[in-house]
Amino acid sequence: MSEALFQQDAYQKTCTASVLKVNERGGIVLDRTIFYATGGGQPGDTGVMTLPDGRDIAITTTVYGDDRAQIVHVPAEGSTLPQPGDEVSLNLDWERRYKLMRVHTALHLMCALVPFPVTGGQIGEDGGRLDFDIENPDAIDKDELTERLQALVAAGHPVSQLWITDAELDANPGLVRTMSVQPPRGSGRVRLVAIGEDGSVDLQPCGGTHVSSTAEIGGIAITKVEKKGRNNRRFRLALLD
To answer: How many CB atoms lie within 10 A of CB 6?
Structure first.
């Protein structure tokens, strides 16, 4: 298995690791990594891998292997590949990752303010979106929602994580906000992201990376609300700085 260092410390920008294998498509699997693998609407991390001889190769994305136990680093086409057992170092594209962290945390705040099931979502460097199954879509005003989001950001609520068992999650199904995607089970525990003391602002299962305080999100706004079905509405959020 690949140890997911990003779940322990989302602010770690470099690490060393051992190559476990290079798969048939040229993807590089390490024993541990700071690179987030694509999932939950958040794109995989990019950056640089330095080989034992000092050569750098660009990592264009990061994904999970077929069994989700291993994390695969996808090198740029034509790169020199390491060998199993090699010790390599990773350097994260931190500027890109930090923007994704800000957006992802902002979308959790939106979940806290729009109390309806989530039908889809996507995270980008400059903003993101969430789709909600809303019984009365006209009841939510985007300008008012922006003001409420900005207030939560300005309050500087702490963002932390905690772990519960699969059984505890099953006993609290209301923690899961997404209709189409369920948190991965099987390892015996599930990671929750808590915003506010003890999750007083928002608490839900999530494997993504987040800032440590809502104040780090900075300026945000709801820029557009789109109709995607009778009750389905898409809210687009943008970073303003």
So the answer is: 25
Output helix, strand, coil percentages for the chain, rounded to the nearest 5. Answer: 25, 40, 40
Q: Tell which residue, 169, 225, 206, 194, has the closest CA to residue 42.
A: 206
Q: CA–CA separation, 45 vs 14, rounded Å?
A: 13
End-to-end Cα, the chain, rounded Å: 38
Per cent of the chain over pLDDT 70 is 96
Average pLDDT, the chain: 93
Spell out the alpha helix ranges (H) of the chain: 5-8, 94-113, 142-154, 166-171
Q: Nearest to residue 207, comparing CAs of 163, 241, 169?
A: 163
The CA-atom distances, in angstroms, between 84 and each of 78, 90, 131 are: 18, 16, 42
Alpha carbons 31 and 116: distance in angstroms, whole number: 39
Task: State residue 186's pLDDT score.
Answer: 59
CA-based max dimension of the chain: 61
Note the pLDDT tens digit of each residue in 183-212. Answer: 765 567 899 999 999 899 999 999 999 999
C-alpha distances (whole Å) from 102 to each of 97, 116, 151, 217 are: 9, 22, 15, 5
pLDDT tens for each residue of 99-134: 999 999 999 999 999 989 999 999 999 999 999 998
Specify the 3-state DSSP secondary structure of 105: helix
